[in-house]
Amino acid sequence: MRFTSCCGGAGAKTLVLVGKAGNGKSATGNTIIGRRVFESKRSLAGVTSTCQLETATLSNGQIINVIDTPGLFDSSVEPRLLATEIAQCIKMAKDGIHGVLLVLSIGNRFSEEEASAFASLCQIFGHEIADYMIVVFAHGDLLEDNQCLEDFWGPNCPQLLTDIMAMCGKRAVVFDNMTKDEDKISRQRKELLSLVEAVVKNNGGKSYVNYLFEALNMSEMDLIDQTSEVTCSEKSHEGKKFHIKYEEQFEQLIKMVELRLGECIMRLEKQLAEERVARLEVELKAQAAQTKSKEEMIEMKERLERAEELSKKLEEKFKNAENQSKEKASETIWSRMGCIIM
Description:
By secondary structure, the protein is of the alpha/beta class. It has helices at residues 25-33, 79-92, 112-125, 149-153, 159-167, 182-202, 211-228, 232-341, and strands at residues 3-6, 13-18, 52-57, 63-68, 99-105, 133-138, 172-174, 206-209. α3 crosses α8 (232-341) and α7 packs antiparallel against α8.
């Protein structure tokens, strides 16, 4: 179920960068913000280790909040750490998300791990989160001049990626984070933000929040109300209690996320196990068919050898019979000739 909160058209927009470690999330965030605020470098491993929020005011007055995340749903990371970072992301975007930027790399082959991450994201935040998703293809510098995504992928686009693109409404942009061309950078940012505006408009002008956001916000509001009722002399003491209570509430949020994450992991493990069993069954059937084929070939070869052997025997028998016939005919002729001579 999706809960929503209103956001004005001229209000701040919050964007969350998600994707596999090393795909170029931080570099994309720097391009959006317009300056280097996220640590970024070419690496197969991820550079970002924790969620980071940065804000920029664009030339048109638009305020942009960008949340960079580590490699969420990385199978090598402990579920507790993943849950903590997801909860931290929710905390940073507590007023709602206006766009989830799924960053993929043109330079890397789309993997089942990325497809599983997308599925986990939908299961934790709700499938409606796909209505706010935009696919960003980083490393656009790898495309040749005037080459578009359709030309790059061609007919070989992985089916899993095609399915994800369809779920995201085919919203996609290419980002060249290596370019120094300010006009190109501006065009990329403008194209992305126009998609964000379209996403918000398509969702009734509202940002995305769900029960996880609601749980955190309600806890914070309750604590603020309780604190506002105390006297000035009590505020210092109550402030400490507020902080402790808020940390307890945040811990509850982490546990909620961890629970959902555990369910996702179990579901994905079950799915992977079923796929392995299905592949094994196909392999066994293929082996059985191959074995049967080999047996049939051996049987056919043996039958052919038996037929050739029988043919040779018949031919030899025919020749022997023919020779015997000739010998008998010759004896008959000589016997007749002997009678004539006598």
